[in-house]
Specification:
This protein is of the alpha/beta class and 323 residues long. It has eleven helices and twelve strands. The protein starts with a strand and ends with a strand.
Length: 323
């Protein structure tokens, strides 16, 4: 019988159906780093959304055979150790292909039409005192005819492209930075920075992409450009972003991710009170439909793995202790 332990069940607000193989299920609302080892003792399958599983912990869990990541990114897992020890690591993709692109454009439209600034004006009573029927204190632009640059052209990048073209935007797909060759349909990285009215990030966080956008990149962008990051916080040097917003190097930014989440020790972006900066708490992926699809896919992957390794029996034991 498999022992399944879900370390941070509250991170996915969806219904998880019972896997169709013999198992014991234990779930915890959340798990602190110092609690991981004890909670995973005896587990054969670990489910985690953001709880980190590193080699120092994994080497003390000889019975663990699979880690199911309830997310797309696997940067919280020591994948090299797992590869060496034969621990299967399975992530979930394609569950937020509508939710994330929609959030990208929610941020983009709010910024390009200066909705935050106008809402603040109304709260301050400025429209009520206007000598004309409207307020025209902040510039409002259209997406139609504007250029969208996409860095990271997986399923999410393609989803963003589809919506952008429906708005009538021109789309540039960035080639990797410092690439030796430019693939068909791609545009050199630097050219995308220079030409984009809106730049959106959808690449994974790796050693090569950490701080991908920093002081040099902001200097290359249009002063009227908007940066959207619904990928990973570490893709952008946050100090450089603060400087770019405060000096007018770019026109605005919409971020759904920060370098450390949750930002218990604070974050410099949260200290800014700027109408041209919107920060949301990593919710781009979290539509009701998207979370349920994630849950369904994750259980599908558990069942597929069991089928590939042994003949399953269809019974279960549910243990919700610690939830």
């Amino acid at each position: 019988m498999e022992k399944i332990v879900f370390l941070d069940r509250d991170s996915v607000r969806a219904d998880f159906r019972k896997p169709r193989f013999a198992h014991e299920w234990q779930e915890f609302a959340s798990t602190e780093p110092e609690e991981v080892l004890e909670r995973l003792r005896g587990a054969t399958i670990a489910i985690t959304n953001k709880v980190a599983l590193r080699a120092a912990t994994l080497e003390q869990l000889p019975e663990l055979r699979m880690i199911a990541v309830a997310a797309t990114g696997t940067d919280c897992i020591d994948t090299e150790y797992c590869r060496e020890k034969g621990i299967v690591v399975s992530n979930v993709t394609d569950y937020s292909t509508h939710s994330v692109p929609e959030h990208v454009f929610a941020l983009t439209l709010s910024l390009i039409r200066n909705l935050n600034a106008y809402q603040d004006d109304i709260r301050r009573g400025l429209w009520q005192k206007s000598p004309i029927f409207c307020l025209l204190d902040h510039p409002v632009r259209e997406l139609y005819g504007a250029t969208l640059g996409i860095i990271g052209y997986g399923n999410l990048g393609r989803g963003v492209e589809k919506i952008a073209r429906a708005f009538g935007m021109k789309v540039l797909i960035a080639e990797h930075r410092e690439a030796a060759e430019i693939r068909d349909g791609r545009t050199p990285f630097e050219e995308v920075l220079e030409k984009s009215d809106v730049l959106t990030l959808h690449c994974p966080l790796t050693a090569e992409t950490r701080n991908l956008i920093g002081e040099r990149e902001f200097a290359a962008m249009k002063k009227s450009a908007i940066l959207i990051n619904c990928g990973r916080g570490g893709l952008v040097d946050e100090k450089s972003l603060v400087d770019a917003l405060q000096t007018g190097a770019i026109a605005g930014a919409g971020f759904d991710v920060l370098t450390t989440e949750p930002p218990r020790a604070g974050n410099i972006l949260l200290d800014l009170q700027l109408p041209n900066l919107i920060v949301t708490p990593h919710i781009a992926w979290s539509s009701r439909e998207g979370m349920q699809m994630l849950a369904d896919i994750l259980i599908d992957k558990l069942e597929a793995w069991i089928l590939s390794t042994t003949a399953p029996t269809f019974s279960s034991k549910i243990n919700t202790g610690g939830a």
